[in-house]
Amino acid sequence: MEERDLAARFEENRSHLRGVAYRMLGSLAEADDAVQESWFRLSRADTGEVENFRGWLTTVVGRICLDMLRSRKTRAEEDLESPATDARAATAGKGDPEQESLFADSVGLALLVVLETLEPAERLAFVLHDLFSVPFEEIATIVGRSPDAARQLASRARRRVRGAPTLPEAELESQRGVVAAFLAALRSADLDGLLAVLDPELVVRGDFGRGISEVRGAANWAKGAVLGAHGAPFVEVAIVDGSFGLVFAPRGKKVVRALTFRFANGKVTSIEVIADRARLDQMEFAAPA
After folding, report:
1. What is the mean pLDDT of residues 259-264?
2. Using CA atoms, how far apart are residues 218 and 204, in angstroms rounded to an integer?
3. Total-model pTM
4. The CATH fold of domain 3-162
5. Contact between 156 and 143 (Cβ < 8 Å)
6. Does the pLDDT at position 253 exceed 80?
7. Which CATH class is domain 169-286?
8. Do strands 267-274 and 235-240 pair parallel, antiparallel, or not at all (unpaired)?
């Protein structure tokens, strides 16, 4: 196949590959790097006998993303052992915040948050099989395991993504509605809409790792919450420790703040805002169905 025809077929699949890579990496800049690397590999490969061109490219970009995830994990472990801050940290997170927000919203920020907690091989197996229908036989060749082992990786990831239900379905659905209305009011700076889902005697506690702060009264808290909701594009409804809450994860990375709620009579009676890293690392997050 001539290079021009090869490039044209690659461009036909670019958005698909970008979607795969973004779900694997949770970063638009890294996803674009992975897609570009897949083009380099395609341009050097003999694809004359490739029957499923999209499937071949999906496998290639999956393998690239797996290598990137493993490298990221290794760097994180090295950074824990070294107090030095290198150039990677200085440039991390750069890019187009608006475009990143749109991508996170289209995928589901809660899903990205949970995917970030998976081991690289689990994440690949879940993303490729459950989201893009890649057969386990092909996934097995990427992770270097048997098809049955690849199936187990996806199964473990699926349990993490869905979480273990701790409340009756009807109660969870009621919570979902209240939390969704809460978030919609924040995003639209709708003070009346926010107050409508809050109990007048609301208690809000904040844990930022420096002791506990407390605000009492829905009216006292809601005005400041609406004014400070500029981070709402990176806030999403999620299941937090078994019940519905909110997570704040800029650009789909690790959760930096979580909100847990208590409910009574269809309203929020208390909120805990958790930003302490040690506590966040012990919490369990799942993506709503």
Report:
1. 96
2. 9
3. 0.72
4. Butyryl-CoA Dehydrogenase, subunit A; domain 3 (1.20.140)
5. no
6. no
7. alpha beta
8. unpaired
